[in-house]
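Protocol step 6 of 9: fold each sequence in the batch and record its structure tokens directly after the sequence line. For illustration, a two-sequence batch is reproduced in full.

Sequence one:
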Amino acid sequence: MSEVTVEELFDQGIERYQAGENAADLIPLFKDVCDRVPKSSPAWTCLAWLYLLDKKPTQAYKAAQKAVKLNPQDPQARVNLALAMLETAKSGVRDQVELAAQMMLAVPELHDEVKQNIEEGLSRRSDWKSLTRIQAWLFGDE
């Protein structure tokens, strides 16, 4: 049997997430992907999101920092970082939200993607006050 590539592992993780699998069950898979490909911003972005869903903001903050460092133009990575900062009472949240908003203005597809991710996050964690705040900051006047 052939070994699964990192790309296949990542894709399997995304499919399992989209199928509704619990974030806690997916964290080990995405940690493995991040360990194998430490310069993969999408993997770190996913891992940060899963940590946030699993109410582990400190781990999410570290993963989101890596994602933003690897790809400063990814608004979802910035949203994840802002969420983790809110949930760990760190300063600089507004700067991250403003940068994400600017990137979403520049690329309409990113706007839709982030909006869908936020809505999906709230469907998994309806009591997520930090995400509701970020949603209001980014999309409040739509």
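Sequence two, same batch, same settings:
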Amino acid sequence: MYGFTTTLSGVSFDDALAKTTQALKAEGFGVLSDIDVQAAMKDKLGEDMPPYRILGACNPPLAFQALQAVPDIGLLLPCNVIVREVEPGQVVVGFLDPQVMVKLVGGAGVKTVADEAEQRLRRVCASLGGNAVSP
């Protein structure tokens, strides 16, 4: 598995997105990018789909450590977080497991950063409530 998720019920997509952004901030992550997949699919393909966003979350101290350990690790940054509506009132929030970096790159410096990032992201996931799914 390459990530972990939680499913929020009884919440609007916009509220889940705001709650996710706030929970990330509480763990030291900023959102560097916010890709509106729903809007892109409508604009580029004329296709309708439920709300779906990809957030590029970054914790600057951890990113700096990772870049110092392996400069090309920027190919794997930032940590992606998805927020997607399954149906009205049901939203999945998913997190890329930072341990994926360790599997691809290896090295003690990266492992230390991935461990810390994973702990923080799992706390974000847990703070959202919902039904968590983990590998």
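Proceed to step 7 once all outputs are recorded. Observation for sequence two: The chain has a mean pLDDT of 93.
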